[in-house]
Design goal:
Blueprint: E1 3-7, H1 15-26, E2 32-37, H2 39-45, E3 55-58, H3 79-88, E4 94-97, H4 101-112, E5 122-127, E6 136-139, H5 149-165, E7 174-177, H6 188-197, E8 203-207, E9 219-221, H7 224-250, H8 253-274, E10 282-285, E11 291-293, H9 300-316, H10 318-328
Parallel strand pairs: 1-2, 1-4, 2-3, 4-11, 6-9, 7-8, 7-9
Antiparallel strand pairs: 5-6, 5-10, 10-11
Helix pairs in contact: 1-9, 3-4, 5-6, 5-10, 7-8
Length: about 325
């Protein structure tokens, strides 16, 4: 049975939504959750019926969002440190955390370690897409702000394998984010990376920001600085559009009637497409294990789906496939 270490204290709203998400996941799938955090607080939110279905590991410290990521290595009694250590010691197969993302990435990279042939890990996120077959995987979105061309090549390999193994795509298409589709466009980094990515079967060349969403490619590769800005910008645009729609609908009775008629067929599907809770979290690709990093504002549904993502990650054999492809490509 797959064992998943869960940082029960991470997240903006404390242990309640995290434990509720674990309960929802247990009702649907078989796995062993290892809840890491303050035992007393965990038991306050865990119904007695589920006591024999979970393990609890006591942690007396919590790394807050305001703490620097670098302190994580020294805070050995923190919930995220202990959760990551469970994966390092092979006592858990994956770690899920909605806590300090920088701390989680630092600990996963340095304590669990990287895969062979991977110089730096990448945080990958699922972006909504017009493609009928899958959403778009964007990486890196914040793990590595200063990248080399070699890093981007490895990101492309990891993204290709993830979409093939987890999304079920036979030959995923890959693009590198630039300021134009022409081969001559881009900065020094993307131009150098372009030469390396040309050797990959699914590589389609340069793509622009709108291509993340229009379904033209399955994987979009960029450095973590650019990717994080793209991610936060898209989240802001989606939120603003929804709020503008709500405001305009309230102004007119016909609009209210139309919105009511479209609620199930249109708005429900739209919300599902852009809601981060539907995807659960972002996998940190390239570490010698599985680490899923969830949004700090994650609700129970997001935690449940993050757990399901961890299960899918382990079942699909992503890590071994990444290593095999890198070896095959003589890297």
């Amino acid at each position: 049975m797959i064992r998943i270490a869960i940082d029960a204290m991470g997240g903006d709203f404390g242990p309640e939504p995290i434990i509720e998400g674990v309960i929802q996941a247990l009702d649907e799938k078989k796995f062993l959750p290892i809840l890491v955090g303050n035992r007393e607080q965990i038991l306050q939110h865990l119904p007695q019926y589920y006591l024999n279905q979970v393990e609890i590991v006591e942690a007396t410290d919590v790394i807050s969002m305001s703490d620097a990521a670098t302190v994580a290595l020294k805070r050995k009694e923190s919930s995220i440190y202990k959760a990551v250590e469970l994966v390092r010691e092979k006592e858990a197969d994956a770690v899920v955390s909605a806590g300090h993302s920088g701390a989680t990435m630092t600990l996963a990279t340095l304590r669990i370690g990287r895969l062979r042939h991977i110089n730096k890990p990448a945080l990958a996120t699922i972006m909504p897409s017009l493609s009928p077959r899958s959403n778009t995987l964007l990486l890196d979105v914040g793990a590595v702000t200063d990248c080399s061309a070699r890093n981007l090549y490895e990101f492309a390999i990891m993204g290709e394998v993830y979409t093939r193994k987890v999304f079920g795509l036979r030959v995923p298409s890959i693009g590198i984010l630039a300021n134009g589709e022409e081969d001559s466009k881009g900065n020094a980094l993307t131009k150098e990376a372009f030469k390396l990515l040309k050797t990959l079967p699914g590589f389609k060349g340069n793509v622009e920001g709108n291509d993340i969403f229009n379904g033209s490619v399955d994987v979009v590769v960029c450095d973590g600085y650019t990717g994080n800005i793209a991610l936060k910008t898209s989240e802001g645009v989606a939120s603003t559009i929804l709020e503008l729609m709500k405001t305009e609908i309230k102004k007119s009775i016909p609009a209210k009637i139309g919105a009511l008629l479209m609620k199930k067929k249109v708005f429900t599907k739209l919300k599902k497409k852009i809601d981060y809770a539907e995807y659960g979290g972002a996998p940190l690709l390239g570490v010698n294990g599985c680490a899923i990093i969830s949004h700090g504002k994650s609700n129970a549904k997001a935690i449940k789906n993050a757990i399901f993502q961890a299960i899918a990650y382990n079942d699909s054999g992503v890590n071994s496939a990444i290593e095999e492809l890198l070896i095959k490509n003589n890297t």
